[in-house]
Write a structure and sequence with these properties.
The protein has one domain: DksA, coiled-coil domain (Four Helix Bundle (Hemerythrin (Met), subunit A), Up-down Bundle), CATH 1.20.120. It is elongated and about 65 Å long. It is about 60% helix and about 0% strand. The protein is mostly helical.
Length: about 120
């Protein structure tokens, strides 16, 4: 059950909840693709040139960085959903002020207001 936040209307909370759910679903799909791309690179040393091996290793490094960013985003979304259930969603975790709907609509996982 969603608890309405004081500075947000129930419709705004519902809209933000739907956006968080959409982003979570999309992120989980992306994470599955990223995880598959993190499988060890198997190269045929006789068929692949040195530059192709370097490209493959660089791509795997970029994929590891993407996986780390996805983990951070996942944690932020999960924390936002928890705050929503607790009734503290949209309240800045630093100063305690309510973040405007417009900010939350753009960054629904944001734990702080724009000033903090």
């Amino acid at each position: 059950m969603l608890i309405p936040m004081k500075h947000l209307t129930p419709d705004q909370v519902s809209e933000l909840k739907a956006e968080l759910d959409r982003q979570l679903s999309k992120l989980l799909q992306s994470m599955a693709v990223t995880q598959a791309a993190l499988e060890p690179v198997q190269l045929d040393q006789t068929a692949v040139g040195r530059l192709s091996r370097i490209d493959s290793l660089q791509n795997q490094g970029l994929t590891k960085n993407r996986a780390q960013r996805e983990q951070v985003k996942l944690a932020l979304i999960q924390q936002a959903l928890e705050r929503m259930e607790q009734g503290t969603y949209g309240t800045c975790t630093v100063c305690g002020e309510g973040a405007p709907f417009e900010r939350l609509f753009v960054f629904p996982e944001a734990p702080t207001c724009a000033g903090c």
